[in-house]
Amino acid sequence: MKPLAIDLFCGLGGWTEGLLQEGYYVVGFDIERHVYGEHRYPAQLVIQDVLTLDGRQFKDAALIVASPPCQEFSHMAMPWTRAKERARQYRSGELNVKDLTALFDAAVRIGKQAGVPTVIENVRGAIPWVGRSQWNYGSYHLWGDVPALMPMTMKRGGDALKAPGRPRQGRQDYTGVTPRLTNPAEHIKQGGDWFATEGSISRTTSSKSTKRKMASALIAKIPLPLSRHIARTYFPRQSEAEQ
Fold first, then answer.
1. Any residues with CB less than 8 A from the CB of 79 and at least 6 apart, and which?
2. pTM of the predicted model as reported, rounded to 2 decimal places
3. Which residues, 6+ apart, have CB-to-CB distance to 46 below 8 Å?
4. From CA 22, how far away is CA 232, in angstroms rounded?
5. What is the mean predicted confidence (pLDDT) over 16-28?
6. How, if at all, do strands 140-144 and 118-122 pair?
7. Sign of torsion over alpha carbons 62, 239, 20, 227
8. Structural domains of the chain sorted by starting position, each given as residue range(s) with its CATH number in brackets
9. Which residues of 121-132 are buried (b: 16+ CB within 10 A; e: fewer)?
10. What is the Cα 195 distance to its own chain's centre?
């Protein structure tokens, strides 16, 4: 039997593609079905609000991954008056921070209830609100059960950067680093076309438009080398699978 992996806020399956390639059986959860032409979720999909899930139903899973929506975190990281005002409202208590972090917190809760390795991905802009990330792979920041050994990345100029393990003190910041073997356009999680001043998706489309939803889902896809590395790290050994 293939080990089970759970993909929360699965979208178009950025995590799932790597999990499938490494031999997992994957079940994804999302509040809606994302189908945009040839782009669709590649595994079993359950339409359900992640906030309503009880992690104990996933106690037999080998791995849980999650990519909670990041637009609000990214927006508040922008140097705009409106973005700064939004952040101020959360910090002052005018807006409830628990509402801001509810989906991220749900992923943490589900992982603890399940008692299995859980890796949560989000943007750098989430750090002031949910705490420091354990590692980042380009603009993809990771929390939870992040492996000590992470894939190699490289600078946009092409100079290789090795990431042999988690530093004992401090943490190397790979923000802005392009993941190896990926299309640079796919790794953008904040900035770029989404928040550009001219012709950006956020400024030229409605928040409920299909074009904006598709762009958001595509931008959120996890680079394949990263998803496969996490999947490979937690794939059960033969002795464990036989128990």
1. none
2. 0.78
3. 27, 28, 29, 30
4. 6
5. 97
6. antiparallel
7. positive
8. 4-242 (3.40.50)
9. bbbbbbbebbee
10. 18
Q: How confident is the model at residue 195 (pLDDT cuts 50, 70, 90)?
A: very low
> Could you give phi then psi for residue 222, rounded to 5 degrees?
-75, 135
Kindly compute the dihedral angle of the four CA atoms of residues 151, 4, 29, 123, in this order, to the nearest 10 degrees.
Answer: -20
**Cβ–Cβ < 8 Å for 171, 135:** yes
- Each residue's pLDDT tens digit, 59-99: 999 999 999 998 899 889 888 999 999 999 999 999 999 99
Taking the C-alpha atoms of 223, 229, 47 and 11 in order, what is their torsion angle to the nearest 10 degrees?
0
Model pLDDT, residue 53 = 98
Query: What is the distance between the alpha carbons of residues 57 and 41, in angstroms, rounded to a whole number?
Result: 22
Block residue for tokens 């001219």: 198
Name residue, tokens 């705490």.
131
Residue 155: how many CA atoms within 13 Å on its side-chain side? 6
Percent helix, percent strand, percent coil in the chain, to nearest 5:
40, 15, 45
* Per-residue H/E/C for 39-108: EECCCEEEECCHHHCCHHHHCCCCEEEECCCCHHHHHHCCCCHHHHHHHHHHHHCCCCHHHHCHHHHHHH
> Is the CB of residue 16 less than 8 Å from the CB of residue 30?
no
